[in-house]
Amino acid sequence: MQDEQSRSPVRIINAAGYLTRLGNSIMDPPVLRAMEEASRSFIELDKAQLAASEVIAAITGAEAGYVVGGAAAGLALAAAACIAGKDLDKIWRLPDTQGMPNEIILPEGHGLYYERFIRLAGARLTFVADEAALDKAISSETVGIFFDANMAQPIPQPALVARGRSAGVPVIADAAVSVPPASNLRAILAAGADMTVFTGSKALRGPAGTGFVAGRSDLVLSVMLQHQDWDVAVELNNARGEWLWGTRPPLVMGMGRAFKVGKEDIAGLVTALQAYDERDHEADQHHWLRLLNSIAAELSKLPGVEVHLREGDKTTAVPLLQIDAAAGWPAGRLAAELRAGDPAVWLGMSLFPDREIWIDPVNLQEGDESLLISVFEDTLCRLG
User: Helix 217-227 crosses helix 45-60 at what angle (to 10 degrees)?
Assistant: First the structure.
């Protein structure tokens, strides 16, 4: 292990897409400039967030928005907003939810891993398999309904929204990797979600540790109350007299303090979001298709290699080059050998239901195409 850690880093050709392990994406120069400029001045963070809210709202169609420390943090803060609202007593207590409604309902299979971040707020999770189970589960203890907008759901969004509306319960969308397509920045909210949670560091190419929430102003305000310094939260909630002059417990931070973002993150995220909104997404599609067709033509010349193009659809929005056969070598072995090279080539890979490997073009840099083909050829020769 020590030898591995002491080795010099090798160049990585990222053909795996927006992979957190590799840093998700590369920030564009305007984002870096915005972060550098922000680093050289002071600003009240609540004022910076209010300015960011205007930009997020304009782009998403939401009433308000807020920059958070990643999509996982956004889920935790959205859950806290559902439980505590703008009640400073409840905010002060979280994640202790004893004696207060704290149930959040999710369709079965939500995210597989990410429901644990909802629990951080003190939520008790109930999973339902269908609409009948959802109707039965909703009660006076229910404070929110969450669903994963990134994957097919056993209960469609319109049904979740209808049940939430009738029960007076907010519906929250985990939309962390729902972009692209860019239209989802607006579509999920337009379809009735009360709040959406997005990552800022993948397709948007914002700072790696950022995300944002967008939705109803009361829910976003609750996120802000959880997140800001306590004296700011008290002022925002018009409770200065009772909280600052000794009739309440000593000032403490909300649980959102663990997920704080700096002025550089706010500036970078807002700049990245604006740039993404103005981007020519159709041109991106054409570029990715040309790139993959060129790579496919070269890889197909190698003996035993078979590939096919999976064009982007409404679900993925990104074309992929699937590798169907690689001279008889198992997909997992080939992917591991490619990662062990220098430069290292990382491919997209799924374990379920089949061990598939593919080339995702979104993070390929200039010059990567020829290197990728060369490493692929050398690796197959080495495997013999």
Answer: 150
